[in-house]
Specification:
Strand content: 5-15%
Helix content: 40-55%
Structural class: mainly alpha
Number of strands: 4
Strand order of the largest sheet: 1-2
Shape: globular
């Protein structure tokens, strides 16, 4: 797996690595492949806590990245990172923009106006139905509906 997006996905899978820490790793290592292959000591020198450096190593040793990559490819999902020209410019402008976007389909000019669906981890049956109805109604009227795909 030589695709540089793998390293973006990899760090996206590590709990505790968000936009700010990822920016720090990029600033320190200049590239996420180098950060992904770093030792625990190097990760700590880059600003990660010992616990977070251990989480990176643990994720690196698990098969989670390989399974995620297989799923992404099987579902024909495109992966966009901050470095991709297709990454939405308006999203890049916010402080905590997600480092990785998983896109099913294509991002087109009409997507400049979009609605994000954000919810709770413990959704009720009523909440599911209202969300589905709202998202479907917006999509039927040409509004792009975005989901973070949280559990």
């Amino acid at each position: 797996m030589e695709d540089s997006r793998l390293y973006w996905i990899a760090f996206n899978l590590v709990k505790g690595i968000g936009p700010a820490r990822l920016r720090g790793l990029l600033a320190y290592f200049q590239d996420l492949q180098a950060a992904w292959q770093a030792t625990a000591q190097q990760l700590q020198e880059a600003g990660l806590s010992p616990k977070l450096a251990a989480a990176v190593l643990e994720t690196r040793q698990s098969q989670v990245l390989e399974r995620a990559w297989e799923t992404i490819q099987a579902l024909q999902i495109d992966v966009l990172t901050w470095q991709d020209p297709q990454y939405p410019q308006s999203l890049k402008e916010i402080d905590q923009s997600p480092p990785v976007l998983y896109v099913k389909g294509a991002i087109v000019e009409q997507d400049q106006w979009a609605v994000a669906v954000v919810g709770t981890r413990r959704v009720s049956a009523y909440g599911k139905q209202v969300t589905a109805d709202l998202a479907a109604g917006l999509a039927e009227r040409g509004v792009t509906v975005v989901s973070g795909l949280a559990r």
